[in-house]
Specification:
This protein has about 220 residues and is an alpha/beta fold. About 35% of the residues lie in helices and about 20% in strands. β6, α6 and β7 form a beta-alpha-beta unit.
């Protein structure tokens, strides 16, 4: 079969929407750094220029999948282990501890303004903070946008009543091993990971709340 070689290095000039959406959602560790990423190639059947143009989004997603496989996860969070990140900056630059040593339970959420499901997760997190905060729940939402303006525009539309942190370099997400947006980890009173969760759908709400309630009750 005749083939041609497709570079998997992201091309912002031809498919920025794909890069900001599907590609980043599928490959956070590779793309939050947005620096030198090892290039790789795949071989696909030769097709006409028109068909190839139509396949551009698919090829971009394929690139994201490959980059996710070759990207190191560094000190990825593991259940039963301490979170490999101590703090992230706040809006004014002061440190926001992810585990403050006071909360009975900490829910750390990684999000970005371009993340569609985050518009569902924020109202849910606000409700959980109001409902379980008096029992010792603390929610920290860590933004990964490279532009603070993008994050602030999102928060203006979807207000947050939880603690906010900002990590434009994405170092915390890389160290935790974030693979999708949003992603969350639940920490016990000792700061060790009790649960990890990727993505957010309406049907996830009951299960996540039950995990929070069970952890607070000691079950």
């Amino acid at each position: 079969m005749t083939t041609f070689t497709v570079s998997l290095r992201a091309n912002r000039t031809t498919a920025p929407a794909v890069e900001r959406g599907a590609a980043e959602a599928m490959s956070m560790p590779a793309l939050v750094r947005r620096r030198a990423v090892p290039s790789a190639t795949v071989r696909v059947p030769r097709v006409s220029a028109m068909v190839a143009h139509g396949l551009a989004p698919l090829l971009a997603v394929t690139a994201a999948c490959v980059l996710a496989l070759v990207s190191p996860r560094a000190h990825a969070a593991e259940v039963g282990q301490a979170l490999p990140v101590a703090s992230v900056p706040s809006a004014d630059g002061t440190a926001v501890p992810l585990h403050d040593g006071k909360a009975r339970l900490t829910y750390v959420d990684f999000w970005a303004s371009w993340c569609g499901p985050c518009r569902q997760s924020f109202p849910w997190m606000n409700r959980m903070q109001a409902k379980y905060g008096p029992q010792g729940l603390r929610i920290v939402a860590v933004n990964l946008d490279t532009s603070r303006a993008d994050a602030q525009a999102f928060l203006k539309e979807v207000p947050a009543t939880v603690t906010l942190g900002f990590d434009p370099k994405g170092e915390s997400a890389r160290r935790v091993g974030v693979r999708a947006m949003p992603s969350s980890v639940l920490l016990g009173p000792d700061g060790k990971v009790l649960m990890q969760h990727a993505g957010f759908r309406a049907e996830d709400e009951a299960e996540l709340e039950s995990r929070i309630a069970a952890a607070l009750s000691g079950r």
